[in-house]
Input
Amino acid sequence: MSEAKNTSFSGQLGFVLASAGSAVGLGNIWRFPYLAAKDGSLFILIYLLLVLSFGFALLLTDIAIGRKTRRSSVFAYYAISPKWRYLGVLTFLVPAFIMTYYPVIGGWICRYIAVYLTGLQEAAADSAFFTSFIASSGSPLGYGLFFMLITGLIIFFGVQSGIERVSCWLLPVMFIMIIGIAGYVLTLEHTDANGQTRSGMMGLVYFLTPHLEDLTLSRFLQILLDAMGQLFFSLSISMGIMITYGSYVNKEVNLGKCVLQIEIFDTVAALLAAVIIIPTIYVFSGPEGMSAGPSLMFISLPKIFNVMGTAGIVIGALFFLMAAFAALTSCISVLEPIVANIMDVFQSARKKTTVLTTLFYLIAVGVIVLGYSTFYVEVKLPNGSTGQLLDIMDYISTSFMMPFISLLTCLLIGWVVGCQWITGEVERCGHAFRTKALYTFMIRYLAPVLMTILFLQSTGFWNMLTN
Ligand code: PHE
Output
């Protein structure tokens, strides 16, 4: 494999598909539909506005940092300003933490694919199925390690032969599946025990109807914060991923255009996931049936797939396969910046670095999997929730570090080196950057304020301060 093939994407398309693969993940499938159902279409409107303004600015910043410095986070921040090198190390730690638990969830998804392929759909419809599965040791361990190994294998083959090739296949297939399932869901109809019939189309109307009757200022702020937190996680911002991917982009590529395309992929996937999940839950469980996170995906949906009969087996298998693809393209984007940074720091070769990193993470993933059995703990987190090892890793990386890093990055770019450091990179080769003024305003003023609020809210300090 030539050196160039190992260190850059083949072109704009490969880069956009790989980045969209990173962006489209569990956040789109289990978090966006839940928030859309909870907060209504006002959430979607605010989310769309934030994607185009705030999300655009932050994603562009990450990618431009990568392309301009041609380095992953540790050295990229050093290249911007040696005094800020610790920010690079901090950024490196985000994927390093996420990598310990993302394959665990990927493994759960693989278990559910196996459920539908082996006729266990009735057993899986019992709420205890999921909890007893994750609380056992052998099975979740096997699936988690399997998912980790596949991720390591893809990274082993490098940027073009690994990441780009897999993303170029999986992303389009995933979109076809998601569109197909959404289309089917809209034709559903079900009459419950009270004789009430609900259809998928009614669910869609419910999803799109703004519920503004009880809108108060504090609820509006809550929706804004929900949208911001979701956007952040969904676009894989401020975790070094997009810096690393950006460092593999050719200098001629129009970054502004790429960011827009990545955002379109990510947002359309989130909306389609909502079109699958909200009407399905609405038809079979009514508007109150919506739950969040793992219980939505691994408890509520399997119950419904079981009620659907034979069609439910097909839809269940396709749904979890689609989710596995989404998780895999995100998971490789978490491992890549870790491997790339280690290669940078130790001047080591990709294959050797990947093998050693994968071995390390096989152990780490094993520990996190066993966090529901052998290493069971109950820790009260500052945001009020109680969690096991997986939740602790998630809290540290996504609730605590991501908004904090984003805040510091905005201060560094907006106030220390100046926004022209980024805008110059975007305008390279004569590409127009029409929203430059908006970008500068976002990075210097709005983003730091919003990031501070988001940081206080997602860490739970906001509630401590206001109570
Ligand atoms: N962007 C991914 C999603 O929406 C989440 C992700 C988190 C991806 C962490 C990579 C790393 O699910």
